[in-house]
From TrEMBL, chain A:
<dbReference type="Pfam" id="PF00043">
    <property type="entry name" value="GST_C"/>
</dbReference>
<comment type="similarity">
    <text>Belongs to the GST superfamily.</text>
</comment>
<dbReference type="InterPro" id="IPR004046">
    <property type="entry name" value="GST_C"/>
</dbReference>
<dbReference type="InterPro" id="IPR004045">
    <property type="entry name" value="Glutathione_S-Trfase_N"/>
</dbReference>
<dbReference type="InterPro" id="IPR045073">
    <property type="entry name" value="Omega/Tau-like"/>
</dbReference>
<feature type="domain" description="GST C-terminal">
    <location>
        <begin position="88"/>
        <end position="224"/>
    </location>
</feature>
<feature type="domain" description="GST N-terminal">
    <location>
        <begin position="2"/>
        <end position="81"/>
    </location>
</feature>
<dbReference type="InterPro" id="IPR036282">
    <property type="entry name" value="Glutathione-S-Trfase_C_sf"/>
</dbReference>
<dbReference type="InterPro" id="IPR040079">
    <property type="entry name" value="Glutathione_S-Trfase"/>
</dbReference>
TrEMBL record, chain B:
<keyword id="KW-0808">Transferase</keyword>
<dbReference type="GO" id="GO:0006749">
    <property type="term" value="P:glutathione metabolic process"/>
</dbReference>
<keyword id="KW-0963">Cytoplasm</keyword>
<dbReference type="InterPro" id="IPR045073">
    <property type="entry name" value="Omega/Tau-like"/>
</dbReference>
<protein>
    <recommendedName>
        <fullName>Glutathione S-transferase</fullName>
        <ecNumber>2.5.1.18</ecNumber>
    </recommendedName>
</protein>
<comment type="function">
    <text>Is involved in the conjugation of reduced glutathione to a wide number of exogenous and endogenous hydrophobic electrophiles.</text>
</comment>
<dbReference type="InterPro" id="IPR010987">
    <property type="entry name" value="Glutathione-S-Trfase_C-like"/>
</dbReference>
<dbReference type="InterPro" id="IPR040079">
    <property type="entry name" value="Glutathione_S-Trfase"/>
</dbReference>
<feature type="domain" description="GST C-terminal">
    <location>
        <begin position="90"/>
        <end position="222"/>
    </location>
</feature>
Length: 224, 225
């Protein structure tokens, strides 16, 4: 039994970041799948504040919030390469900045564009593109945001690589087009091809069924 | 001519997020130049150094810029490794401090915004909700960082002290401009922590003056009223 346990839901992109980090660094762990519609008492005990996944349990001590967990992994298993964060303080700050930007701006806007329709969807997409432009600029001359190998910020944006095409297929809309965002699309391909990434992400058809059902539920709930 | 260790902070006097950066630099004894921004007329420099968010604070160190107060605090600790350390060495404690700093910035601020935006019964409910958020924070910090709660030992300000103090120590201005949201009776532990922080010489020096802050809060929050 590994001293590291990861509570996750199979479809959620946040715990997937942690899976990638643990896999890439070769850290042994046990996976505990949660049914988010019926959360286990263990999850509620280990993350009473947010009651969410991911939760990392290390020697019985819980850590939640994916970006906090990534930093914990990096600091605890210092000798396990590759490093997720560079040594240089400025580069570290940039990785943290972009990760936060992704979670605060890009993810919610792409999600909005996916679950909304009509004018709401159009507006969300415009706002998403406004923000994605900065990422496109940041990717100039870089294979990954972390440099030559996948790093902290890449893991945080990793959901783009497996979920955007799923969302596009379900909603029937192009979220990230190759004319406006060629570097981003190249990044998505490089990320997908990096070690441990594609082999650990959920099967596409399952994701399509799951997110299609979720989208339909959310649309049905919208006030007319 | 090369400028070694040139540090510039772009900020506004009323912003707690900017005070965080100034306190951290002062704690580490790092000299810096401060540039006051008029957010209704942002400078070319601000837009150049923070094109993504166009906000304050921004720290510019030898020409390279960093935005977002929590990112800046970690940068200051990473870059100037001498004492006092803002974050401890232990990864688990660091994780807890980061967790609660994020909770504070996301949950508290959302809750306070609800109070500001509402009136009458809705505001009463919002204040009650805020009380619950504060309780979760108090209990959580006590549980996760037991040996150091209140975090502030009377001498050194740490990461969470800076994050919480720069906002919470202005509570008197908020109480006067908006509504009373906590008291020694409702939240004694938080109250004693904030009171101790308010008495720290750096906080006293860096926090905005009460009357000016009340005026700004009234103007900003009730512009549409």
């Amino acid at each position: 039994m590994a001293e590291v346990k990861l509570f996750r839901a199979w479809s959620s992109p946040f715990p997937l970041r942690i899976v990638w980090a643990l896999e890439v660094k070769g850290i042994e762990y046990d996976m505990i799948y949660e049914d988010l519609s019926n959360k286990s008492s263990m999850l509620l005990q280990y993350n009473p504040v947010y009651k969410k996944v991911p939760v990392l349990l290390h020697k019985g001590k819980p850590i939640s919030e994916s970006l906090v967990i990534l930093e914990y992994i990096e600091e605890t298993w210092k000798s396990k390469t590759p490093s997720l964060l560079p040594g240089d303080p400025y580069q570290r700050a940039m990785a943290r900045f972009w990760a936060k930007f992704g979670d605060d701006k890009i993810l919610p806007l792409i999600w909005e564009a996916f679950i909304k329709q009509g004018k709401d969807q159009e507006e969300a997409l415009i706002a998403a593109h406004e923000n994605l432009k900065y990422l496109e600029v940041e990717l100039r001359g870089k294979k990954f945001l972390g440099g030559e190998t996948v790093g902290f910020a890449d893991l945080t944006f990793g959901w783009l690589a497996n979920l955007v095409s799923v969302f596009e297929e379900i909603a029937g809309v192009t979220l990230i087009d190759h004319e406006k965002f060629p570097l981003l699309l190249t990044w998505m391909k490089n990320f997908m091809d990096a070690p441990k990434i594609r082999e650990t992400w959920p099967p596409r058809d399952k994701l399509i069924n799951h997110f299609r059902a979720l989208r339909e539920t959310l649309i049905a709930k919208e006030p007319k | 001519m090369e400028k070694q260790n040139e540090v510039v902070v772009f900020g506004t006097w009323a912003s707690a997020y900017c005070t965080r950066v100034e306190i951290a630099l002062a704690l580490k004894g790092i000299p810096y130049e401060y540039k006051e921004e008029d957010l209704t007329n942002k400078s070319e420099s601000l837009l150049y150094y923070n094109p993504v968010h166009k906000k304050v604070p921004v720290l510019v160190h030898n020409g390279k810029s960093i935005a977002e107060s929590l990112v800046i605090l970690e940068y200051i600790d990473d870059c100037w490794k001498h004492a006092p350390k803002l974050l401890p060495e232990d990864p688990y404690l660091r994780a807890k401090l980061r967790f609660w700093a994020n909770f504070y910035d996301q949950k508290f601020m959302a809750s306070a915004t609800q109070i500001i935006m509402s009136r009458g019964e809705e505001r009463e409910r919002a204040i009650k909700d805020f009380g619950e958020v504060l309780k979760v924070f108090e209990d959580g910090v006590k549980k996760d960082i037991p040996a150091e709660f209140p975090c502030f030992d009377g001498k050194n300000l740490g990461f969470l002290d800076i994050v919480v103090g720069t906002i919470a120590c202005n509570y008197e201005a908020f109480h006067e401009a908006v509504a009373v949201i906590f008291s020694p009776e409702t939240n004694p532990t938080f109250w004693s922590w904030v009171t101790a922080l308010k008495n720290h010489p750096l906080m006293k020096e860096m926090l905005p003056p009460h009357d000016k802050l009340v005026a700004v809060m009234r103007q900003k929050y009730f512009q549409s009223a």
